[in-house]
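Exercise 7.
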Amino acid sequence: MLNIGKDLNAGALTLSLEGRLDTTTAPELENVVKTELEGVTALNVDMEKLEYISSAGLRVLLSAQKAMNKQGSMTIKNASEDVKEIFDVTGFSDILNIE
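Solution. The predicted structure, written as tokens, is:
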């Protein structure tokens, strides 16, 4: 299960992810990314409560990063050590801006 919190403030969208971002839940985030990014210049993805991310979740983050490269910036915040390790192993730590 994945809960996605959305907070839009002056062109900055924060998506707060809670639960698991996997094959089952990735389409939910993909839909949010496709529908909510218009006019957004800064996308922040808060992963403080994200327990797990799979390759399907990584694919959605990659597509969000590509979209934001054209219109602003994207930052990953508060990722757990387990999620950061997945980013490191897959090379995503070189692609994404992780704080």
